[in-house]
Amino acid sequence: IDRLLKNSHDHFFCFLPSPPGSLSAFLLDRLFQGVFMGAEQADIIKNIPENAIIVYTSKYKSGFDFLFAHTRYRQQRLPVPQLVFDSEIYLWQPLSRAFRVCLAYLDELIQHHRIHNPYRSGYYERALLSSGCALLPLVEKKGFYRRFVKEKTDPLRYLIEIQKKTDRPVYLVPQLFFYTKKPLPAVPSLVDMFFGSSQRPGKIRKIVTLIRHPGKIFVELSQPLNLRQWLSQPACVDKSDDYMALQLRRELLLQHNRHRQFMTAANLKVIR
Question: Which pTM does this prediction carry?
């Protein structure tokens, strides 16, 4: 088993190598080729220091957002998120790697009678420091239950702990997806109720839009947040990591919402 695992249990589905494999890379390249991302968005990332750890943030948990960043940023030679917090990528994994992940989970279960956990094992920290890039969702359906009832690890708190231990600055970069340039209607339609709104479409609506109208989808990157500078501000002095993680999440969500409102207002003015 050790030989098959290459003497390491650092095998998880939350990591997708770049490129993931010839066939997967070919399919993903074709899948996202119609999504628009302006050159000025790439400049936002290029202005970040080279030694920085870059963590893209999405408002909601979405494999779609991760796969886009994993694919298009590789094409544009930008820092590629190979690691995703609190999510797992199954379909696009190389078969050899998927086998090792399953074997590592099984071995952990047999040897220690517990589920293989990337937080407990320290894998997230090692992988992030090694790859230097990740994607982190800010909100999930069961986020409150996971973090307060079941006492699961908060990824932002985990990130704060990493920043305190490393000399490399951590930059949080909000990534926003827009599936239409039209403002959100006051009254949702039947399509919105069943398949999600244009602001937060469901999986079926995302796929249909991507296949039929890829030109309607575009991506915006918001102003990066330097976590080291943010932690050094007076409001964070002598505060607990839990408190700072809560405030950091609020600030990032506010930035996501304001950026989306700005884009919607701009499009509304054009329509008028």
Answer: 0.87
